[in-house]
Amino acid sequence: MINDDTKQTVKFLTYILILIVFLYFAFIIIFYKAGNPERTQTRELNRIALQKTPIKYTEKNYHLDRGINSYALKGLDKKRKTFYFIYLPSSKKAYLYPANKGVNEEVIRHKYESKRPDEKITEVNLGWYQGKAVWEVSSKNLVGEYHYQLYEFKNGKLVG
Question: CB neighbours of 55 closer than 8 A, spacing ≥ 6?
Fold first, then answer.
């Protein structure tokens, strides 16, 4: 027979294991809920774009918060023509731009990399800033400092 000390140790370890499993699932739920508003806005953006614009296929989603929270996407119509769609959830305003009326992400990346070749681009996002569509480039230098640059969507010029 197992003595009392061994029973208490097994019981204690069982409680610890149950607590660890509970905390694991609690953290999963907390992190899922924390990301839920952005997922909800992205789903709404995709729904609006597919219903109210010529866009029939979405390729990429973007999110930018520069004083105004904006969500954007790159999509294609039936004829495979590329469009960019920007949605401002707080005001319920939306903007549709044909890709040929502005510069694309690849052009902005190339422009940024040619001026700052030693920095690593971490992200490029399309969004809304001071009443116009902009590309935001986030990068990290060799020292670990982050830098941000905004470029106008329409002409690719640096926003001052």
Answer: 49, 73, 75, 76, 77, 83, 85, 96
